[in-house]
Amino acid sequence: GGTNKIVNPPGADPFHREYEQGATTHQTYTGSGQNWDWSNSNYMFNAFTVSSDEFEKYAVAMTQQMAKPEKKN
């Protein structure tokens, strides 16, 4: 039924607040002494526009989350 779209996942940075997820059919890289093959692996694709203000808000929110005490089960 098409590509899955992920919207506002928890803790997402401004670059990943919305993206499509699927699987590659063929993706390779060869260069600089490397030979990588990501065929049949997960991928994330998105087009984005992010301002420095948006990224600063994210950084502040993440800092606040990291400062919270860890919950014990």
What spatial form do the alpha-carbon principal axes imply?
Answer: elongated
Strand content: 25-35%
User: Which residues sit in consecutive blocks of at least 5 with pLDDT less than 50?
Assistant: none
The rounded distance between the terminal residues' Cα atoms is 39 Å
Average pLDDT level: 87
Secondary-structure element series: EEEEEH
Largest sheet: 3 strands, antiparallel
Strand order in the sheet with the most strands: 1-2-5
Number of helices: 1
Over the alpha carbons, how many angstroms does the gyration radius reach?
17 Å
Q: In percent, how helical is the residue content?
A: 10-25%
Number of strands: 5
Secondary-structure-based class equals alpha+beta
Can you characterise this structure?
There is one protein chain. The chain is an alpha+beta fold and about 70 residues long. Helices cover about 20% and strands about 30% of the residues. It is built from one helix and five strands; from the N terminus they run E-E-E-E-E-H. The strands form two sheets. Strands 1-2-5 form a three-stranded antiparallel beta sheet, with no helix packed on it.
